Design the sequence.
C-alpha cells in the first residue's frame, strides 16, 4: 500500500488542493485550511484506509503534511 | 458572563461546586413552575427514546437554559445516554459540574480550544459507547445562530442523526452575554419543537457538507421561530434576518 499516495489523496480531497501542489512542509491549518472538523475527517480517513489507530497524542503532533508522513514512516 | 476564579484551586473548586449546586437547585425549582408543551415533532423524540440509537441533539446557545431544563426534567428520566460538550473555559467548568451532577457524560473542548480532541472524544462516545451528545451549534462563542460545520461533520462521520430542536419561552429575561441567554420567568409557558432527524451521507464533498450545514441552520432556526411565534414571543433583536424573513 502506497502510504504517501493515500495521505496526499486524503489531504488533497479535504483541502481541495491538487495533490501535486501539496508538499511535506505545508502547514495543515495555515496552508491547507484543515480546521478541527476537517482534521477529524482526515484522521478517520487515515485510520480507515491505512488500518491504524492514531492516538490523540500522536494526532496533536501532526501539524504539517510531513508530520503525517513521518508518523507512518516511523511505524513501517 | 465570566467567572473570575481559578477552578483548579481548592477554593475555586469549592466555589464552582457550590455554584453548580445552586444552578441545579434553581433549575429544578424554576423548572417545576414552567408549563412545557411540545408543539411539533414529538414523535421524533419518542422514536429516539424507544430505539435509543445515538442521536445528536442540537439547539441554539441562547436557549441552553431552557434546553437544560428540558433535558433535566424530561430526558434524564428516560435513561437516555446523554453526553454534553462544554468549553474548557471557567464557565464551561461550571456547566460540566452541573451536567455531572445530573449523571450526564461530559466532554470538554470547543472549536477554538482543543477542538479536534473534543470532536474525537465525541465521535468515540457516539460510535463506541452509544452516547447521544447535546451539541450547541453556535457555541461556545458564536456567531449567534450560526450552525458550525463541526456538528455536521460529527454527524456525517459517526452516522448519528441530528435531532434539531427549537425552544422558546413566553416571558423571559436575557443575560448580557454574547448570545443574550434567555431565562424564562417562573410560571412561563415554554414551547418546544423537534425536527425530523437528519442523517448525513458518507462521503460528502465540502460543498455538500456546506449545503447540509445551511439546511441544518435553517431547520433549527425555523423550529425556534415557530416556537416563538406560537407564544407570540418573537425576539426582534435577533440578527438572523435573512432566515427569519424566509420563515415569516
Sequence:
Amino acid at each position: 500500500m502506497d502510504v504517501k499516495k493515500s495521505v496526499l489523496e486524503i489531504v488533497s480531497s479535504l483541502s481541495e488542493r491538487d495533490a501535486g501542489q501539496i508538499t511535506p512542509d505545508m502547514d495543515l491549518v495555515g496552508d491547507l485550511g484543515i480546521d478541527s472538523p476537517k482534521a477529524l475527517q482526515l484522521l478517520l480517513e487515515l485510520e480507515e484506509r491505512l488500518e491504524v489507530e492514531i492516538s490523540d497524542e500522536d494526532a496533536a503532533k501532526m501539524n504539517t503534511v510531513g508530520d503525517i508522513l513521518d508518523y507512518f514512516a516511523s511505524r513501517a | 458572563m465570566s467567572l473570575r476564579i481559578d477552578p483548579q484551586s481548592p477554593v475555586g473548586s469549592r466555589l464552582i461546586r457550590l455554584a453548580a449546586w445552586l444552578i441545579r437547585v434553581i433549575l429544578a425549582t424554576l423548572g417545576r413552575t414552567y408549563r412545557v408543551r411540545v408543539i411539533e415533532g414529538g414523535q421524533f423524540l419518542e422514536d429516539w427514546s424507544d430505539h435509543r440509537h445515538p442521536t445528536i441533539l442540537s439547539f441554539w446557545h441562547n436557549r441552553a437554559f431552557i434546553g437544560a431544563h428540558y433535558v433535566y426534567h424530561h430526558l434524564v428520566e428516560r435513561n437516555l445516554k446523554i453526553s454534553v460538550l462544554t468549553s474548557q473555559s471557567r464557565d464551561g467548568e461550571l456547566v460540566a459540574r452541573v451536567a455531572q451532577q445530573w449523571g450526564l457524560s461530559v466532554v470538554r473542548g470547543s472549536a477554538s480550544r482543543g477542538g479536534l480532541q473534543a470532536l474525537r472524544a465525541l465521535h468515540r462516545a457516539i460510535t463506541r459507547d452509544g452516547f447521544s451528545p447535546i451539541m450547541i451549534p453556535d457555541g461556545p462563542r458564536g456567531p449567534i445562530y450560526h450552525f458550525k460545520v463541526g456538528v455536521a461533520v460529527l454527524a456525517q462521520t459517526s452516522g448519528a442523526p441530528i435531532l434539531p430542536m427549537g425552544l422558546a419561552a413566553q416571558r423571559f429575561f436575557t443575560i448580557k452575554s454574547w448570545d443574550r441567554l434567555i431565562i424564562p420567568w417562573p410560571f412561563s409557558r415554554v414551547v418546544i419543537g423537534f425536527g425530523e432527524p437528519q442523517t448525513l451521507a458518507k462521503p460528502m464533498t465540502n460543498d455538500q457538507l456546506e449545503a447540509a450545514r445551511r439546511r441544518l441552520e435553517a431547520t433549527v432556526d425555523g423550529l425556534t421561530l415557530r416556537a416563538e411565534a406560537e407564544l407570540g414571543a418573537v425576539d426582534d433583536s435577533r440578527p438572523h434576518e435573512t432566515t427569519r424573513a424566509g420563515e415569516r
About this structure: The helical segments of chain A are 3-15, 36-50, 56-60, 65-75. The domain at 3-75 of chain A is CATH 1.10.1200.10 (Non-ribosomal Peptide Synthetase Peptidyl Carrier Protein; Chain A). DSSP finds four helices and no strands in chain A.
